[in-house]
Amino acid sequence: MRIDIISIVPQLLESPFQHSILKRAREKGLLDLHVCDLRNFGLGKNKQVDDYQYGGGAGMVMMIEPLYEAISSLKQKRDYDEIIYLTPDGERLDQKMANALSLKQNLMLICGHYKGIDERLREHVVTREISIGDYVLSGGELAAAVLVDALGRLIPGVLNDESSALSDSFQDGMLAPAVYTRPAEFLGWKVPDILLSGHEAKIEDWRDKNAISRTRRKRPDLLKE
Ligand code: ADE
User: Fold this and answer.
1) 73, 57, 76: which is closest to 116 by C-alpha?
2) Taking a C-beta distance cutoff of 8 angstroms, is the pair 109, 4 a contact?
3) Other CB atoms closer than 10 Å to residue 56's CB: what's the count?
4) Whose CA is nearest to atom 5 of ligand 1?
5) What is the pLDDT along the chain (225 residues), one digit of tens a residue?
6) The CATH number of 2-152 is which of 2.60.40.10, 3.30.460.10, 3.40.1280.10, 3.30.70.20?
């Protein structure tokens, strides 16, 4: 999968993709990430990318021309399955959406700043709008990093143990069960006996029940769905 991210603060996107699973995905050639610096498409000698909003009011708006030029230059080289604008008023990101997006070939992500981008881009160019939650970040970069991480780890071949993504929380509409590792006892706190029994069917059953009771306790809304 190739992902192009358009940003005015490319530095914010340097570290998140250079470690751990996403680093491995890139090294394996499964995830090809590129950050496009919007400033390169800015207007005039100051490389302007934002302007006052029509009708007045506080806050700048990201101008249409630089973004349109940046998007067009990327589109000239390949077709994109989705052109995604990260915005708090978008569709809420969830595991189902991450699963679906992880199967795409080419994605373009647009990171907003200030009051957002000129509405005409949303009407005519953007194909999808995604929010990572009901709060406002100072820019779309951290939201883009969250989205790339959530779907990058799902790209077939990225995780060594393929089944481990399937047993994540939310994959079956429930939270994942509790997990333990050595030692079997610490400060008198014990790992449930069943997990040490080696009895696969009973362990599976324990995990199912644990997942259900955890979900009922922590996220009853998921069970209603
Ligand atoms: N940009 C600012 N806040 C955001 C959010 N919550 N989700 C996605 N993009 C954003």
Assistant:
1) 57
2) yes
3) 6
4) 88
5) 999 999 999 999 999 999 999 999 999 999 999 999 999 999 999 999 999 999 999 999 999 999 999 999 999 999 999 999 999 999 999 999 999 999 999 999 999 998 999 999 999 999 999 999 999 999 999 999 999 999 999 999 999 875 678 888 898 899 999 999 999 999 999 999 999 999 999 999 999 999 999 999 999 999 987
6) 3.40.1280.10
Q: Which residues contact 148 (CB under 8 A, 6 or more apart)?
A: 3, 5, 16, 17, 22, 33, 109
Q: Which CATH number fits domain 167-224: 2.60.40.10, 1.10.1270.20, 3.30.70.3270, 3.10.180.10?
A: 1.10.1270.20
Residues 73-93 have pLDDT tens digits of 999 999 999 999 999 999 999
> Cβ < 6 Å from ligand 1: which residues?
86-88, 112, 131-133, 135-137, 140, 143
Q: What is the pTM of this model?
A: 0.96
Ligand 1 atom closest to the CA of 140, numbered from 1: 1
Q: What is the spatial distance between Cα 191 and Cα 65, in angstroms, rounded to a whole number?
A: 60
Cα-to-centroid distance, 66 and ligand 1 (Å): 21
Distance 51 CA to ligand 1 centre (A): 20
Q: Tell me what the pLDDT averaged over the chain comes to.
A: 96
For tokens 């005519």, name the residue.
124
Tell me which residue has its CA closest to atom 10 in ligand 1.
87
Return the residue whose CA atom lies nearest to atom 6 of ligand 1: 88
Domain ranges (residues) in the chain? 2-152, 167-224
Residue 132 alpha carbon, nearest atom of ligand 1 = 7
